[in-house]
Amino acid sequence: MIFWQQLLTQLQQDKKVYLLTVIENFGSSPGRKGFKMLVADDGFIFGSVGGGVMEFTLVEEVKALLQKEKQPIFFKKQIHQGNGKDKSGMICSGEQTVVFHPLQNSDIPFIASILKAIENNTSQTLCFSPNKIAFTQDTITDKYKTEILSENDWSFKENIGFKETLYIVGGGHVGLAVSQLFRQLNFHVVVFDNRDNLNTLEANIFAHQKQVIDYNDIENFIKEGNDTYVAIMTNKYTDDKLVLSKIIKKTYAYIGVLGSKAKLKTMWEVLQKEGFTQNELEPVYAPIGLHIKSETPEEIAVSIAAEIIQVKNTDKT
Fold first, then answer.
1. What is the pTM of this model?
2. How far is CA 298 from CA 97, 209, 278, 310, in A?
3. Nearest-CA neighbor of 43 among 26, 27, 66, 20?
4. Mean pLDDT over residues 227-249, rounded?
5. Is domain 165-316 classified as CATH 3.40.50.720?
6. In the chain, where are the structural domains located?
7. How far apart are alpha carbons 126 and 120 in whole angstroms?
């Protein structure tokens, strides 16, 4: 969101801009697929495609191109530890391919449509090609899709919009801190509570959605899917147990419950007596978050974020 806002601002100031995007990477390349950077004709830079001497060299090349009458669309392969025309100058292993697209004020509606899709959590596809960048309703199953046949025949598609959604059940102080951090992490953040006029829920300006509901109906408010993460942190043991019992048999990428080991041990014993099996309880992350001796709401938020990022990225390592 912040990147596209910065890009829109530069175009609204009538600047010419190059958008640099990593469309492919292998090995331990510092630039990963989807990394982006913008370089404006006045030297303004935002974002990164991997840093180091490689990035500096690419930026200098782009700055020179922006001073010319016309700017081409092209891509460059950067081979780290390599020799020849594609060497990046870096000593790390791996390689990456960076696409360069020129943009100007006539592209403002296009960038605005990207921002609208992100804000509304609408999944749409950004399509890069040797001729243009397009924004379509077509969907792809993965976050990115790359096909490179030659310098003149290639495509890169990116799923734009919040791919992951975090549902926070409990709008208290921890819920507020978690909302703020996950907003920065580009999750779509939804907060539920069952209390009216809750000051921390009213003060929560970070959640994309917040709603007072009856926890007995919680399963109707949380969509199933491998991009859905659920953090349970109500103000009562009984509500935590109620919420978990309602959603535990559904499919999510992550379910975590806030609480002490003693409280959760009791909850597990009660749920098993109510008929839930050990296999159903085993996938639940409880106590929620990595064990880093968190104490404050902000520290707890960091531990939860670290655990969810670990789960989210496990299949990418």
1. 0.70
2. 38, 20, 32, 18
3. 66
4. 96
5. yes
6. 2-160, 165-316
7. 16
